[in-house]
Design a protein that fits this description.
This protein is α+β, with helices and mostly antiparallel strands. About 35% of the residues lie in helices and about 25% in strands. It contains 16 helices and 18 strands. It binds flavin-adenine dinucleotide. Flavin-adenine dinucleotide binds next to helix 1, helix 2, strand 7 and helix 16.
Length: about 425
């Protein structure tokens, strides 16, 4: 049996941030990760530019965490969007605010930031203690005596600790290390865990019936348009009252839809599918045009022009937008101006299911805040702390995921400090 004063399991943004807090306070930290190197999902996020955080007003930022906003607010007050930017800048990585108020490193990359961060963890300022990294150590749950069980290249190992901080991530992109295998182990330890579900994910569409397919797009649509974006459209969920439209972009996939606009609605869509069996997503293909303008343009005599050149000429509607209309409307509806105009402004797409969590950007569900005290320590297991995406919260894309993961890493790290009776150096 090995002993570690403080063990952190999981070297994503949350675990690394907790390690930084503890090492700077002079604690000896051993960080274990299943993979050959840490921060793999963080590096992948860098492929999309590494949206570190968001520069909107603080209250608006907190509200993006939806049902868990209250639980995360104190953590974001302690280490929020502004602190994330200062922290990156402290590592020599300048940031900038993009047009959508999203914040990125100026070089839009994750690797230089991660490199500088790991260097600081291995070579801390005076007073700090270098973090010890143990790669290829896959945590397998608790041994009967409460110690941590790992599978390692040299066989099984157990590690006893004074305090343990789990930062194992969610269950998206499992090949990067986070696979959600910990759910039953924590449940067995008496810690309440909400089922892991896909968040910021794509959805499969039901067939429109027009082309005979009961599920998915027609072969013609998939072959030509899968992977192509719908630019400047608006989406709304089926709502009994007024529809609330969200503008942006989404992408056609081989079996349905994905992309930022769909991700933003993914939590609500998931819940609607769970209660009703399917969810209707309304698409406004021309959000910059009023319904009246679209009606007038569609009804305008087109002479000998084909319908497609009429729609292109009068409304600039062509490409994938026209293809979607042809996919969802039969010939009769396409040639009836009132029906066509109504469909251009509100086309229903029935969604059957979310894509699997392995394909999602992030996951919802995880360790319930009710199972934890105010410092993210398990009520039923003193000395065991939890941070990052494995907690039961979800957020849209836009830098909220990384910021909340980092913030909870700081918070849980400080919880460990309190637990082991030290103050920050
Ligand atoms: C394609 C993609 C792009 C993204 N882009 C952004 C973005 O631009 N902005 C943003 O805010 N968010 C983004 N995210 C989300 C963000 O990367 C995650 O929310 C964040 O990494 C979660 O941090 P974490 O530390 O909680 O978990 P993770 O980063 O998942 O790290 C968990 C670590 O735990 C290790 N681990 C898991 N299980 C075990 C085990 N049993 N034993 C030992 N180690 C284990 C894993 O190997 C991993 O290193 C993106 C995600 C994806 C998939």
């Amino acid at each position: 049996m090995n002993h570690a004063d403080v063990a952190i399991v999981g070297g994503g943004p949350a675990g690394l941030m907790a390690a930084e807090v503890l090492s700077q306070a002079g604690l000896a930290v051993s960080l274990f990760d299943a993979m050959p190197s840490v921060g793999r999902k963080f590096l992948l996020a860098g492929k999309g530019g590494l949206n570190l955080t968001h520069a909107e007003a603080f209250d608006a930022f907190v509200s993006r965490l939806g049902a868990r906003a209250d639980a995360l607010r104190p953590m974001l007050e302690r280490f929020g969007p502004q602190q994330v930017r200062e922290w990156a800048e402290g590592l020599g990585i300048a940031t900038f605010v993009g047009s959508s108020r999203r914040v990125f490193p100026t070089d839009m990359k994750a690797a230089p930031l991660l490199r500088a961060w790991l260097h600081r963890l291995r070579h801390p300022a005076p007073g700090g203690v270098p973090v010890r990294f143990h790669m290829r150590h896959r945590w397998q749950g608790f041994a009967p005596d409460g110690s941590l069980r790992f599978s390692t290249p040299d066989g099984e190992a157990t590690v006893s600790t004074r305090a343990t901080l789990l930062a194992l991530g969610g269950a998206s992109w499992p090949r990067l290390g986070s696979d959600g295998a910990w759910v039953p182990w924590l449940r067995d330890a008496g810690i309440e865990v909400a089922a892991i579900e896909p968040s910021n994910c794509g959805f499969d569409v039901a067939g429109s019936g027009v082309h005979g397919a009961t599920e998915g797009w027609s072969a013609l649509f998939t072959t030509r348009w899968a992977g192509q974006p719908f630019k400047t459209v608006a989406l709304a969920l089926d709502a009994p009252g007024e529809r609330h439209w969200h503008r942006g972009e989404f992408v056609a996939t081989a079996s349905g839809v994905e992309g930022s606009l769909v991700y933003a609605l993914s939590g609500a869509l998931r819940e609607r599918i769970a209660t009703d069996g399917s969810a209707t997503l309304w698409v406004d293909l021309l959000p910059d045009h009023s319904a009246e303008r679209v009606q007038a343009a569609v009804a305008h005599p087109r002479g000998s022009r084909s319908l497609s050149s009429h729609l292109k000429g009068r409304l600039g509607l062509d490409g994938i937008k026209l293809a979607l209309l042809n996919e969802c409307l039969d010939r009769e509806a396409m040639h009836e101006p009132m029906r066509l105009a109504a469909a251009i402004k509100a086309l229903p797409l029935r969604l059957l299911r979310s894509r699997p969590v392995a394909e999602a950007i992030s996951s919802a569900g995880g360790v319930r805040f009710e199972a934890l005290d105010a410092h993210l320590m398990a009520r039923s297991r003193p000395g065991l702390f939890v941070a990052g995406e494995m907690l039961d919260w979800e957020a849209p894309t836009g830098g909220y995921l990384l910021t909340a993961s980092l913030a909870s890493g700081v918070w849980a790290g400080e919880g460990v400090l309190r637990f082991v009776g030290r103050t920050r150096g």
